[in-house]
Amino acid sequence: MTKVALFADRGSVRSAEIAACVTAEGGKPVVLDIQLGGLQRPEDNASGGVAATLSSGTLRWQGIDVEGIRAVHVRCTAPRVLPALPAVLTSPAHGAYRTALLREQEFNAATWSFLEEMAARGAVVVNPLTAWIEHDSKGQLHEKLQEWGFSTPPTLSTSDPERLRAFITEVGRVVVKPAVGIGSTRVVGESDLSRLDEVLLCPALFQSFIEGETIRVHMVGETIVLALRVLSDGHMDSRTHVKGFEYVELPAVEQANLVAAGRRLGLHYAAWDIIRDRAGRIYYLDCNPGPSLMWIDSDHRRIVMRQLARYLVCHARGKTLAEALAGVDAWRPSHRLQAAPQAQ
Fold it and tell me: The CATH number of the domain where 187 resides is what?
């Protein structure tokens, strides 16, 4: 059986592109909506909701029996409810929000249980939802990386204004970013220094400003498939001011370090955000266990998707981990870019 389960948000273009790559590698993609329930009102679910059943003899998602599928890719968790309260809520709206948030926790519990059981029954899950802790709590990720000997900028995760003031005095220029998921990074400017007490309202992640080039590094298995310099005309958050990408060949020692970090985090697939300063030293900024690829041009993202598909199909065929790892190739500019496989 060469079926590969692809969990993503409904109508995902990226999922369709990966499915086409899986097909090109000889696999059979099974595209699944990861958002259980789908619709907010239970009475509407019969016309469009996603249901799942887990028992000792049953593994069904969206009406499909996934028992026996040996390779799974999880793009995202697709939550319906913001994890933080909106700025303004009336009393009735607050009650509705709390109800929706509690329902969301049940959906999440069911989803985690289902994917963990798939893994327990022999599937390789790329990546387990347990690995998303690295993306959803970045403060502990940086502490972990530092403890393991990997270079990260001096980092502070805090809601204490006094500790933040001391940190700024100690390291000088700093940037601020969310400690969970994705979000914009910006420099803490002079106008912000009088507002540091506001950190009491919401914890945030602060790091010493490192001047250098941002590099996006894509890892499949234990291979650095593709590293790209993000061209952004010097803007702080390169993702929101992308001008293009350039291939970068990282030194072998840095590639080995990134693979070792990914292995310790339990990742089959990831995109690392790193920065190389003017002296050539590399700092680890972030690790994405379900990275977005759609912000990258089609030629480059297709390189990554093809190697990911190859890795998944190898597992779907019952090959060993060593065989799946050996089947992944790093791309070089001397390799010809292949035409895109057609989506099914």
Answer: 3.30.1490.20
Supply the pTM of this predicted model: 0.86
d(CA 3, CA 313): 8
Q: What is the pLDDT of residues 47-84, one digit of tens each?
A: 457 888 999 888 999 989 999 999 999 988 766 666 55
Q: Is the pLDDT of residue 331 over 80?
A: yes
Tell me, yes or no, whether 227 lies in a domain: yes
Residue 21 contacts residue 308 (beta carbons within 8 Å): yes
DSSP secondary structure letter of residue 18: H
User: Where is average pLDDT lowest: 12-26, 58-72, 74-88, 219-233?
Assistant: 74-88
Cβ partners under 8 Å of residue 102, min gap 6? none
- Looking at the structure, tell me whether residues 49 and 126 fall in a common domain: yes
- Please check whether residue 177 lies inside any domain of the structure: yes
Containing structural domain, residue 27: 3-133
Closest CA to 204 of 233, 184, 220: 184
Q: In the prediction, which pLDDT does 117 show?
A: 94
Adjacency order of strands within the sheet including 3-8: 28-33, 3-8, 71-74, 124-126
Instruction: Give CA–CA dist 291/269, Å, rounded.
Output: 9
305 and 266 co-located in one domain: yes
**Cβ atoms of 275 and 212 closer than 8 Å:** yes
Total number of domains in the chain: 3
